[in-house]
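Predict the 3D structure for this chain.
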Amino acid sequence: MKENPILDKTFEFALSTIGLYKFMVEKNEYVLSKQVLRSGTSIGANVEEAIAAISKGEFIAKMSIANKEARETRYWLRLLEKSELVKIDVNRELKEVTDIVNILTKIIKTSQDNLENKN
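Done. Predicted structure below.
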Protein backbone atom coordinates (compact mmCIF):
# COMPACT_ATOMS: atom_id res chain seq x y z
CA MET A 1 0.00 0.00 0.00
CA LYS A 2 1.28 3.45 -0.94
CA GLU A 3 2.39 5.62 1.98
CA ASN A 4 -0.02 8.45 2.81
CA PRO A 5 1.29 10.84 5.49
CA ILE A 6 -2.05 12.48 6.36
CA LEU A 7 -3.78 9.11 6.61
CA ASP A 8 -1.00 7.85 8.90
CA LYS A 9 -1.01 11.05 10.96
CA THR A 10 -4.78 11.03 11.48
CA PHE A 11 -4.78 7.31 12.35
CA GLU A 12 -2.08 7.86 14.97
CA PHE A 13 -4.01 10.84 16.30
CA ALA A 14 -7.14 8.67 16.60
CA LEU A 15 -5.16 6.15 18.65
CA SER A 16 -3.88 8.97 20.87
CA THR A 17 -7.45 10.24 21.23
CA ILE A 18 -8.61 6.81 22.39
CA GLY A 19 -5.88 6.81 25.03
CA LEU A 20 -6.90 10.28 26.15
CA TYR A 21 -10.53 9.16 26.33
CA LYS A 22 -9.61 6.18 28.53
CA PHE A 23 -7.64 8.42 30.87
CA MET A 24 -10.49 10.92 31.18
CA VAL A 25 -13.04 8.18 31.90
CA GLU A 26 -10.75 6.84 34.64
CA LYS A 27 -10.92 10.36 36.11
CA ASN A 28 -14.75 10.29 35.86
CA GLU A 29 -14.97 12.84 33.05
CA TYR A 30 -17.62 11.57 30.66
CA VAL A 31 -19.00 14.53 28.69
CA LEU A 32 -15.92 16.15 27.16
CA SER A 33 -14.23 12.75 26.86
CA LYS A 34 -16.95 11.53 24.50
CA GLN A 35 -16.83 14.75 22.47
CA VAL A 36 -13.05 14.45 22.05
CA LEU A 37 -13.32 10.74 21.21
CA ARG A 38 -16.03 11.27 18.60
CA SER A 39 -14.45 14.19 16.78
CA GLY A 40 -10.85 13.01 17.20
CA THR A 41 -11.48 9.61 15.65
CA SER A 42 -13.73 11.03 12.94
CA ILE A 43 -10.87 12.97 11.37
CA GLY A 44 -9.09 9.88 10.08
CA ALA A 45 -12.33 8.17 9.08
CA ASN A 46 -13.16 11.08 6.79
CA VAL A 47 -9.63 11.14 5.36
CA GLU A 48 -10.00 7.40 4.64
CA GLU A 49 -13.30 8.09 2.86
CA ALA A 50 -11.72 10.95 0.89
CA ILE A 51 -9.05 8.62 -0.43
CA ALA A 52 -11.81 6.42 -1.88
CA ALA A 53 -13.66 9.38 -3.45
CA ILE A 54 -14.97 8.92 -6.96
CA SER A 55 -14.47 12.57 -7.92
CA LYS A 56 -12.25 15.50 -7.03
CA GLY A 57 -15.32 17.29 -5.66
CA GLU A 58 -16.14 14.39 -3.35
CA PHE A 59 -12.48 14.27 -2.26
CA ILE A 60 -12.55 17.97 -1.37
CA ALA A 61 -15.87 17.58 0.48
CA LYS A 62 -14.61 14.67 2.61
CA MET A 63 -11.31 16.41 3.36
CA SER A 64 -13.30 19.50 4.35
CA ILE A 65 -15.35 17.42 6.79
CA ALA A 66 -12.11 15.98 8.21
CA ASN A 67 -10.81 19.53 8.62
CA LYS A 68 -13.99 20.59 10.44
CA GLU A 69 -13.71 17.58 12.76
CA ALA A 70 -10.07 18.46 13.47
CA ARG A 71 -11.05 22.03 14.31
CA GLU A 72 -13.84 20.76 16.57
CA THR A 73 -11.38 18.45 18.31
CA ARG A 74 -9.03 21.37 18.85
CA TYR A 75 -11.92 23.29 20.43
CA TRP A 76 -12.73 20.44 22.85
CA LEU A 77 -9.07 20.04 23.77
CA ARG A 78 -8.73 23.76 24.46
CA LEU A 79 -11.90 23.66 26.54
CA LEU A 80 -10.59 20.66 28.46
CA GLU A 81 -7.30 22.42 29.08
CA LYS A 82 -8.80 25.73 30.24
CA SER A 83 -11.69 24.28 32.26
CA GLU A 84 -9.36 22.06 34.29
CA LEU A 85 -12.13 19.46 34.65
CA VAL A 86 -9.34 16.90 34.57
CA LYS A 87 -5.75 17.64 35.43
CA ILE A 88 -4.15 16.61 32.16
CA ASP A 89 -1.59 18.08 29.81
CA VAL A 90 -3.05 18.15 26.29
CA ASN A 91 -0.33 20.30 24.71
CA ARG A 92 0.95 17.39 22.58
CA GLU A 93 -2.57 16.64 21.30
CA LEU A 94 -3.21 20.34 20.62
CA LYS A 95 0.01 20.55 18.60
CA GLU A 96 -0.84 17.39 16.66
CA VAL A 97 -4.37 18.48 15.81
CA THR A 98 -3.16 21.95 14.80
CA ASP A 99 -0.63 20.29 12.46
CA ILE A 100 -3.46 18.16 11.05
CA VAL A 101 -5.65 21.24 10.50
CA ASN A 102 -2.80 22.97 8.67
CA ILE A 103 -2.09 19.95 6.45
CA LEU A 104 -5.77 19.39 5.64
CA THR A 105 -6.26 23.09 4.85
CA LYS A 106 -3.33 22.93 2.42
CA ILE A 107 -4.62 19.73 0.79
CA ILE A 108 -8.07 21.27 0.33
CA LYS A 109 -6.71 24.54 -1.05
CA THR A 110 -4.36 22.77 -3.47
CA SER A 111 -7.15 20.43 -4.62
CA GLN A 112 -9.53 23.36 -5.16
CA ASP A 113 -6.87 25.26 -7.12
CA ASN A 114 -6.16 22.20 -9.26
CA LEU A 115 -9.87 21.71 -9.90
CA GLU A 116 -10.31 25.36 -10.91
CA ASN A 117 -7.28 25.27 -13.21
CA LYS A 118 -8.63 22.15 -14.89
CA ASN A 119 -11.88 23.88 -15.85
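The mean pLDDT is 95.
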